[in-house]
Design a protein that fits this description.
Low-confidence stretches: 31-41
Largest sheet: 6 strands, mixed
CATH superfamily of the largest domain: P-loop containing nucleotide triphosphate hydrolases
CATH architecture of the largest domain: 3-Layer(aba) Sandwich
Radius of gyration: 36 Å
Structural class: alpha+beta
CATH class of the largest domain: Alpha Beta
Shape: elongated
């Protein structure tokens, strides 16, 4: 069964609701006020099955006061059925609804000329000619134009056949994408609890699935699903679905909220976009103009920041940043509409390019930053997944970007994201910094960081020729200050895999760096090491060792550092111990286990012949090495 969503469009009282009822037998007017006043106020729903196609009809209000409700219904439709009454022809809301459909890039549709029983054939011919002129150059040029009467039934079979023809042109929806269901109705039902309805625009939802409702980050589970009044275990993209949510009350949800997978996507208060201003807009759009922003089933007030021009003329387009007055949820490629703040009428619409951008300054012709933003958004506009990932990685720069952040910003499923990442890594345009968490930087950023690290180490070696290398912590702080700690640590680890660098224990050096000493310096170093060896367990401080070989303390510090870095000498507190001697000590202590597993300070002093001054740091060292474990005042030999 193929599922197709049909949305009505047209002026008030042109017969949209009656036509849907004539086709389906279902009255889409569900509100008491709608029935009393004889006009559609809010969106209504009906369905019809023809052969192997299930049509879901979204009937929208035609009155200008209820265009915001029309916008909530028209999102996600596959086919628009533009309804024009034969006794009135093209009217203001016909034009506005049609503009909205064009701005939302609806691709398929047809025209129904209604009320043909109320006028003569000559007027019908004239209206049809006006309609064909009206849609010329649009997606409806060449589309079926069907004459019908909801009262007599004339033309309904022709209209059904036309719907089948247009439905054959509708592409099947992808179900391997992330599920998104913008909510258009919220109500409760006794015995079931909270129920929401909407058109599933992507992916699939299943009974028992845990979901999140954005922008409020509310958690719920799906208790049950219905598609066209039938209970189903799973709902798929393109279907009208009713979702029974467990864990949330009706008062926690509203039209405009979106059901998404849990803990993967993020709400936003700002987005970058391409905005098209209608030719009918009364004046140019200026910076920071306040507008009504409609996306999916939500309406939010927003300010428009122009990014590539100082004002946007009617019938022109621009790159913009929309700053929303309250959070919503969107993803790249979503279509939106903007309306004049007051009085309310449609002035334009566009396409989201970046749903989680940084804040941009308004356009300035002499600003390099403005040009950078324009270049980045132009690349995002290409629509290529790999190009978008690369742009987001470049924008993140030396802060890096995680796989989960890329997923949140793009809305891609793992099945879509992973091949794109693999392609960029293979082409060496992206560098994977770490596997857990998965951090990435662009290849250009990585090259800059590698060059900067080389320069930092070069300067360090010039200033400290007798020091083996820079500590990892110092290098991390100097190379990537202000970045996330786990990323900067992973970055150093990744960079040290490059052949230009050498890392050992807690320090990093240039691979070409070698500590060189004059013959006299080498003799003095050996003397320093000898006195440390000869001191044995009764270790010396650096000051004491320097005095014994008649070295100044600054020079002694330079001489001792390579021994410490290479692991020949270890510093325990202020005392310097020769490491091979400590290895012998560990073997002696392990041998003592044959006599007793218990080791107290007195026994240890007998083994080493040292006083408490030396015994305590040595015992603590053995604890750290896993040879002993302190229990109370004693040790257990492990």
């Amino acid at each position: 069964m193929k599922y197709v969503i049909v949305g009505t469009a047209g002026h008030i009282d042109h017969g949209k609701t009656q036509l849907v009822k004539a086709l389906t037998g279902i009255d889409a007017d569900r509100l008491k006020e709608e029935k009393e006043r004889g006009i559609t106020i809010d969106i209504g729903f009906a369905f019809l099955t023809l052969d192997q196609v299930r049509f879901g009809f979204v009937d929208v209000p035609g009155h200008e006061r209820f265009v915001k409700n029309m916008l909530a219904g028209v999102h996600g439709i596959d086919i628009v059925m533009l309804v024009v009454a034969a006794d009135e022809s093209i009217m203001p809301q016909t034009r506005e609804h049609f503009d909205i459909c064009r701005l939302l890039k609806v691709k398929n549709g047809l025209v129904a000329i209604t009320k043909i029983d109320m006028v003569d054939e000559e007027l019908i011919e004239l209206v049809e000619e006006e309609v064909r002129d009206f849609v010329r150059g649009s997606f409806l040029e060449g589309a079926p134009v069907v004459r019908v009467s909801s009262r007599t039934g004339a033309g309904l079979d022709v209209l059904k056949a036309a719907l089948m023809t247009v439905a054959s042109q509708v592409q099947e929806k992808q179900t391997d994408t992330l599920p998104r269901l913008p909510i258009d109705r919220v109500f409760s039902k006794r015995g079931f609890g909270t129920i929401v309805t909407g058109t599933l625009v992507s992916g699939s939802l299943s009974e028992g699935q845990s979901v999140e409702i954005l922008p409020g980050r509310l958690r719920a589970s799906i208790r049950g699903l219905q598609v066209h009044n039938e209970s189903v275990p799973q709902a798929y993209a393109g279907e009208r679905a009713a979702v029974n949510l467990q864990g949330l009350g009706v008062d926690q949800l509203e039209r405009g909220d979106v059901i998404v997978p849990g803990e993967r996507l993020h709400p936003t208060s700002m987005l970058d976009a391409r905005l098209d201003l209608l030719a009918s807009a009364p004046r140019p759009l200026r910076n920071r103009t306040r507008v009504r922003f409609h996306l999916g089933t939500t309406e939010v007030l927003a300010r428009v920041v122009l990014l590539d021009c100082e004002e946007l003329a009617p019938d022109d387009s621009a790159l913009v940043q929309l700053r929303l007055e309250r959070p919503t949820f969107t993803l790249p490629d979503d279509r939106f509409i903007i309306r004049h703040y007051s009085p309310q009428f449609t002035i334009g619409g566009g396409r989201v390019l970046d749903a989680l951008p940084s804040k941009h300054a308004p356009y300035r012709a002499d600003s390099a930053r403005s040009q950078t933003v324009i270049d980045q958004l132009t690349r995002l506009e290409s629509g290529e997944i790999t190009e978008r990932i690369l742009v987001w990685a470049e924008v993140a720069g030396r802060h890096g970007i995680t796989a989960s952040e890329l997923a949140a910003g793009s809305g891609l499923s793992d099945q879509q994201l992973e091949p794109a990442l693999a392609d960029l890594l293979k082409r060496e345009q992206l560098v994977e910094v770490s596997a857990q968490p998965r951090y990435f930087v662009s290849a250009s950023t990585y090259a800059v960081l590698k060059s900067e690290m080389q320069q930092l180490l070069k300067q360090f070696h010039q200033a400290n020729p007798l020091v083996e290398g820079m500590s990892r912590e110092e290098l991390r702080m100097r190379l990537s200050p202000g970045t996330r700690g786990d990323f900067s640590t992973a970055l150093i680890a990744r960079l040290t895999q490059e052949p230009q660098f050498k890392a050992e224990r807690d320090w990093v050096r240039l691979a070409a760096h070698q500590i060189t000493f004059s013959p006299e310096e080498s003799r003095q170093r050996e003397q320093l090491l000898t006195v440390i060896k000869e001191a044995g367990y009764q270790a010396l401080t650096l000051e004491e060792a320097a005095q014994r070989v008649q070295l100044g303390l600054p020079l002694a510090r330079k001489f001792i550092q390579p021994f410490l870095n290479q692991g020949e000498v270890v510093r325990l507190g202020d005392l310097l111990f020769y490491v091979p001697l400590l290895r012998d000590l560990m073997e002696k202590v392990r041998a003592q286990k044959r006599v007793s597993e218990k080791l107290d300070v007195a026994s240890f002093k007998q083994i080493t012949g040292v006083t408490r001054k030396y015994a305590i740091p040595l015992l603590e060292y053995l604890d750290r090495q896993g040879v002993t474990r302190r229990v109370g005042n004693d040790r257990i030999i492990l």
